[in-house]
């Protein structure tokens, strides 16, 4: 099993007030699955994604990633897991504004010590895969929203991670551009990648094999998508 | 290998950041620039002073002792006490010479300033020395033309003189001075020699000098009852301390001092001036260190401040980097190297300015302020200490940011 979440809880503390964002999530995801997470605003989708992406740690419960217990890892160990196992695509792209597309894609490789020439080659390949081979030296503000998200996807897959996580990757894009992005994810999935994405749109979720619906920090429904 | 990649990457990141905030970076380095310029200029000045002082002192030989009524360095109270000491006499010099084993030359000397005339030419303020043949060795006054006073010249009080090169040039611009008669303070002397050029010492022109037999000096210039200075030369500088002990013993015997009486004469030497000088420059050193420390502290705090601002402004960037796998160490390096680079810029500008200031001082004043290779090491030291010391706190702060909070930061 690639991902095993057992009774994951996340409680935010704002002063003395405790906000339970996740109240006991049990989910497993296998290799090469394509999962969509849906649910109303505030239901805990992003919170769950951040935990799966090792950006955040659960308050309670265990998270096994590739049979490693992630719940009790140190900051630096988590950083290495993020670097090696996870490719994150954010709704707001989160590119470095002053760096070129190429340099943005190179970032994960810098932090695992890939030598410069190899780094550059890998980043160029990743940009080619998302159809941005001709925009490598552009800065983010010289690119359209869809192109920026492609750069972010190239960055997420450059290190050949076990999972690609995308939190509303099409949320800031129009529906046509959104479809283009979804095609890239589908290609990645066909190529053997495991993909988990959060979305509000049914038509986006239809691209996946399985939809997990959250409500109030709990899994409401978890079902396969059939009509494909 | 991995560490090299981090470091080169950190340099690129820091360079980018500095380029993006050029003005701010330059202003930040101002404190460092001022500090470094001040420190290096003062150090250069001290070195210049040292050099020029050593040059000045070279006229006082390192193998000569000066037995005198007063020490060279004393306070008012000592002056009034020492006034009652007995005068030194020419005979003392003779006895010293016969009793001392280490002395190779002993010259009693008397000095005064007089106007010198030759035909219609006048030279005011010539420095008249009444002494003996040994003065040639004790003061290193070597005749370039003619000869020095012989022992018989001195013993017979012959009205002969040796003149300094300046006296020769000014009184005899187009004549050979040897054999000519000049008038010194109303007395006539025949020139028998011209001394080699010696330069000046502490503003005194050593070439505007006239050396005459001490006997004539005493009768002609009414100095019969003045204390003479006795110059004693030893063979090698290492013998100077032994000679001082020996001469003290001989002087005490001449004076008939009992063991509970203090010396009633002083033995002076070049190293005394050197020590006084060093204690003076140590004050300058303290100023340099003080000024330097304060301005570097201020500069360092400036850097820390700007780095803290930079950490806050780049919180999102830090979040992105951490999300992509940057560890604490990586983020820390990034900001430390930025800190070192700001420092290096400041120090480099400071050194450049200091070199300019030193050149300016050297060309407009007699001080040979000089900057040599040591500034490179000093500069490197500044960069490392300030850059690391003031960079570590902001760098740690950045490194410890929680990735998810950093990403959410607006
Ligand atoms: N940093 C935080 N501090 C406090 N409470 C938080 C924090 N982040 C999220 N929450 C709370 O946790 C709950 C779940 O938030 P989360 O962002 O996971 O929702 P979401 O499903 O992603 O919503 P949306 O669809 O609007 O993005 C919400 O009630 C939110 O207020
Ligand atoms: Mg969300």
Describe this structure in words.
The complex is a heterodimer of chains A (228) and B (410). Chain A is of the alpha/beta class and 228 residues long. Chain A has a single domain (31-60, 75-224), classed as Rossmann fold. Chain A has helices at residues 45-52, 75-85, 101-110, 116-129, 145-157, 175-190, 202-205; strands spanning 3-14, 17-29, 34-38, 60-65, 68-69, 86-89, 163-167, 194-198, 210-215, 218-224. A six-stranded mixed β-sheet of chain A has the order 6-7-8-3-9-10, sandwiched between helices. In chain A, strands 2-1-4-5 form a four-stranded antiparallel β-sheet, covered by helices on one side. In chain A, strand 7, helix 6 and strand 8 form a beta-alpha-beta unit. The radius of gyration of chain A is 17 Å and the shape is globular. Chain B has two domains: 2-56 and 274-408, no CATH class; 86-264, no CATH class. In chain B, the strands form two sheets. Chain B has a six-stranded mixed beta barrel. In chain B, 57% of the residues lie in helices and 17% in strands. The two termini of chain B are 36 Å apart. Chain B has helices at 2-20, 22-57, 76-82, 90-99, 135-138, 151-155, 165-171, 214-220, 240-255, 270-313, 315-323, 328-364, 374-399, 403-408, and strands spanning 64-68, 103-118, 121-131, 143-146, 160-163, 181-184, 187-195, 200-201, 204-205, 209-213, 229-234, 266-268. The interface between A and B is medium-sized, with 29 and 25 residues. The site of magnesium ion (MG) has 2 residues of chain A, from helix 1.
């Amino acid at each position: 099993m690639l991902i095993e979440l057992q009774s994951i809880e996340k409680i935010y503390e704002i002063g003395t007030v405790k906000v339970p964002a996740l109240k006991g999530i049990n989910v497993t995801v296998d290799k090469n699955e394509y999962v969509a997470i849906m649910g109303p605003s505030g239901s805990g989708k992003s919170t769950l994604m951040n935990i799966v992406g090792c950006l955040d740690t659960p308050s309670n419960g265990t998270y096994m990633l590739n049979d490693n217990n992630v719940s009790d890892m140190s900051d630096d160990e988590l950083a290495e897991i993020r670097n090696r196992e996870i490719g994150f695509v954010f709704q707001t792209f989160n590119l470095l504004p002053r760096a070129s597309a190429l340099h943005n894609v190179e970032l994960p490789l810098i932090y695992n010590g890939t030598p410069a020439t190899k780094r550059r080659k890998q980043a160029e390949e990743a940009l080619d895969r998302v159809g941005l081979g001709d925009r490598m030296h552009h800065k983010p503000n010289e690119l359209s929203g869809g192109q920026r998200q492609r750069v972010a996807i190239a960055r997420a897959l450059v290190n050949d991670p076990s999972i690609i996580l995308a939190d509303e990757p099409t949320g800031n894009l129009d529906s046509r551009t959104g479809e283009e992005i979804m095609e890239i994810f589908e290609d990645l999935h066909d190529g053997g990648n495991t993909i988990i994405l959060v979305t509000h749109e049914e038509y986006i979720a239809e691209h996946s094999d399985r939809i997990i619906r959250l409500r109030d920090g709990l899994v409401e429904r978890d079902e396969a998508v059939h009509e494909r | 290998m991995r560490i090299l990649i981090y470091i080169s990457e950190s340099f690129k990141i820091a360079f980018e950041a500095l380029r993006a905030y050029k003005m701010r970076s330059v202003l930040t380095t101002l404190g460092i620039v001022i500090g470094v310029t001040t420190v290096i200029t003062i150090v250069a000045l001290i070195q210049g002073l040292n050099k020029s002082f050593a040059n000045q002192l070279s006229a006082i030989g390192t193998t000569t002792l000066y037995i005198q009524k007063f020490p060279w360095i004393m306070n008012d109270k000592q002056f009034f006490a020492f006034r009652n000491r007995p005068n030194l006499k020419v005979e003392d010099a003779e006895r010293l010479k016969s009793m001392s084993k280490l002395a190779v030359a002993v010259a009693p000397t008397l000095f005064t300033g007089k106007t010198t005339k030759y035909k219609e030419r006048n030279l005011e303020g010539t420095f008249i020395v009444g002494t003996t043949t040994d003065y040639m060795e004790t003061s290193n006054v070597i005749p370039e033309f003619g000869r020095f006073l012989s022992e018989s010249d001195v013993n017979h009080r012959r009205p002969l003189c040796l003149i300094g090169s300046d006296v020769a040039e000014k009184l005899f611009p187009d004549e050979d001075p040897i054999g000519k008669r000049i008038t010194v303070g109303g007395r006539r002397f025949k020139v028998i020699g011209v001394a080699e050029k010696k330069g000046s010492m502490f503003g005194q022109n050593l070439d505007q000098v006239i050396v005459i037999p001490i006997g004539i000096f005493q009768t002609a210039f009414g100095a019969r009852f003045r204390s003479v200075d006795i110059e004693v030369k030893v063979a090698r500088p290492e013998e100077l301390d032994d000679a001082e002990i020996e001469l003290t013993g001989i002087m005490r015997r001449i004076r008939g001092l009992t063991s509970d009486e203090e010396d009633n004469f002083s033995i002076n030497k070049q190293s005394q001036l050197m020590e006084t000088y060093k204690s003076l420059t140590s004050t300058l050193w303290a100023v340099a260190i003080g000024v330097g420390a304060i301005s570097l502290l201020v500069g360092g705090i400036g850097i820390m401040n700007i780095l803290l601002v930079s950490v806050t402004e780049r919180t999102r960037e830090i979040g992105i980097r951490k999300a992509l796998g940057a560890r604490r160490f990586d983020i820390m390096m990034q900001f430390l190297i930025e800190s070192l680079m700001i420092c290096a810029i400041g120090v480099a500008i400071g050194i450049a300015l200091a070199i300019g200031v030193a050149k300016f001082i050297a060309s407009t004043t007699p001080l040979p302020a000089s900057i040599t290779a040591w500034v490179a090491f000093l500069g490197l030291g500044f960069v490392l200490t300030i850059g690391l010391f003031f960079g570590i706190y902001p760098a740690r702060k950045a490194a410890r940011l929680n990735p998810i909070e950093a990403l959410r930061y607006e």
